[in-house]
């Protein structure tokens, strides 16, 4: 077994002790871990700051926090969405000649859960598992547009500038999100990475909610996307949505 980072190991043990809806105080956690209460208190407060642990409103006991529910939901959705999308993403990349990405919300970012490379055989970095900023990616803009809670979380903090084209004005971003909701299509041009642009469309689950986003990645010098690419993207997103049990898809607007 490789080297274990002590603080992460201890934090994981705290989460393990709190599983099963258990509520424990600092002294109980300290006794179970055989650590000083002051050490455990610092670890618990760090976990609480990230939403992984929550303190009772009246009392000094702690339970698992809401961020873990988000993470578990992402994981469960990922298993089904990714497996059903891979075939259609490969077709999308083949038809358009560009790479495609499938992303889901992870806290206030976008997690790429599958990346189908450009079919031209060139050297390309695998992107599955990478995170993208929600406000500076086409994937993220679609997730923001259909998730009011995520939109509020992201816009309540300063928008980080990655390139000269990154949108950092909340009013401008809100205006773009309105367009996404109207057209069911997110756009991004060199906002996160110089030389890269992308378009994205929502993927729906059987609940009727957007559970993932599909995008086509286009070199900036070949922007804007052609009508053919937009159509292929929408068709692929709709097909994946149907496979997941969705009965309607908002991109019927403009289809």
Automatic annotation (TrEMBL):
Q: Which domain of life is it from?
A: Bacteria
What keywords is this UniProt entry annotated with? DNA-binding, Transcription, Transcription regulation
Q: Which residues form the HTH iclR-type domain?
A: 5-66
> Per the record's keyword annotation, is Secreted included, yes or no?
no
Q: Which residues form the IclR-ED domain?
A: 67-246
Name it: IclR family transcriptional regulator
Originating species: Pseudarthrobacter polychromogenes
């Amino acid at each position: 077994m490789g080297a274990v980072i002590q603080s992460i190991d201890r934090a994981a043990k705290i989460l393990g002790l709190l599983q099963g809806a258990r509520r424990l105080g600092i002294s109980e956690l300290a006794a179970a871990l055989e650590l000083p209460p002051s050490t455990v208190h610092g670890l618990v407060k760090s976990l609480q700051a990230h939403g992984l642990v929550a303190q009772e409103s009246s009392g000094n006991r702690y339970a698992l926090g809401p961020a873990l529910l988000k993470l578990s939901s992402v994981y469960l959705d990922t298993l089904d969405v990714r497996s059903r999308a891979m075939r259609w993403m490969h077709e999308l990349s083949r038809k358009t000649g560009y790479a495609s990405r499938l992303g889901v919300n992870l806290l206030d970012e976008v997690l790429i859960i599958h990346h189908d490379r450009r079919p031209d055989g060139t050297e390309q970095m695998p992107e599955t598992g990478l995170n993208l900023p929600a406000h500076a990616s086409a994937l993220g803009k679609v997730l923001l547009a259909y998730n009011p809670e995520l939109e509020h979380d992201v816009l309540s903090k300063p928008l980080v500038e990655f390139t000269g084209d990154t949108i950092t004005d909340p009013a401008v971003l809100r205006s773009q999100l309105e367009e996404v909701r109207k057209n069911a299509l997110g756009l991004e041009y060199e906002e996160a990475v110089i030389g890269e642009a992308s378009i994205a469309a929502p993927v729906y689950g059987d609940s009727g909610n957007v559970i993932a986003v599909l995008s086509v990645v286009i070199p900036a010098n070949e922007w804007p996307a052609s009508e053919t690419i937009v159509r292929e993207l929408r068709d692929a997103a709709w097909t994946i949505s149907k496979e997941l049990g969705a009965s309607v898809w908002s991109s019927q607007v403009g289809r």
